[in-house]
Design goal:
The relative contact order is 0.19. The protein is an alpha/beta fold and about 200 residues long. Helix content is about 35%, strand content about 25%. The protein has a single domain, classed as Rossmann fold (3-Layer(aba) Sandwich), CATH 3.40.50. It has a 7-stranded mixed beta sheet with strand order 2-3-4-1-5-7-6.
């Protein structure tokens, strides 16, 4: 079975360019670069799916349509066994990383990310790969400038400003390269080359 790549985000048009949708934004980039099929509604999994190929390797692309906190519904039967989990990659936004950075991790906690928490609950495991996309602004010295706790939700569901979106699309190119290495070689090689 080929890889399953999930881009996290919220489904409606109003959330399209929000920080919380960095995963979906980058998955769209990957689908375009690898000539993915048109997005089709999968009512069973409450998601949009597309099929792509990377150097002959089949890849299933998934955009949950459940809203972030219930992302696990879309993933549960696709990756509900340890064997299938080995081929699951989730792209997520991450407030603990500076805007424009990425980090590939495996078998890690959710870090408080509700979409990841939902998937972990659904598949009963943390043993899957994640590509964390930094969305946090920084000071001129590079220190993270996280919003206050009470402003956190407004920040993550707020739209990227145009320069920020450009940065996300730039890091998206790097993520596409990393995903291609993982699919055609291995997760280890992807982590070594891109972390």
């Amino acid at each position: 079975m080929g890889y399953i790549i999930v881009g996290l985000g919220n489904p409606e048009k109003e959330y399209e360019n929000t920080r919380h949708n960095a995963g979906m934004i980058i998955l769209d980039q990957f689908a375009k670069k690898n000539e993915g099929s048109d997005w089709k509604r999968d009512n069973t999994r409450d998601s949009l799916i597309s099929k792509a190929e990377v150097s002959g390797e089949k890849v299933l692309l998934v955009k949950p349509q459940t809203f972030m906190n219930k992302s696990g519904i879309s993933v549960k039967d696709l990756a509900g066994s340890p064997k299938k989990l080995e081929k699951l990659i989730v792209i997520q936004d991450d407030l603990d990383l500076p805007l424009g950075s990425m980090k590939i991790v495996f078998n890690r906690g959710s870090g408080g990310h509700k979409g990841i928490e939902s998937i972990v609950r659904s598949v009963k495991s943390e043993a899957f790969a994640r590509v964390r996309i930094g969305i946090c602004p920084t000071t001129p010295t590079g220190k993270l400038k996280k919003p206050d706790h009470e402003k956190m939700l407004d920040f993550i569901v707020g739209d990227f400003k145009k320069p920020e979106l450009d940065i996300i699309k730039k890091v998206g190119k790097k993520v596409c390269g990393a995903l291609e290495v993982i699919v055609t070689d291995s997760l280890q090689k992807g982590m070594t080359d891109f972390n």
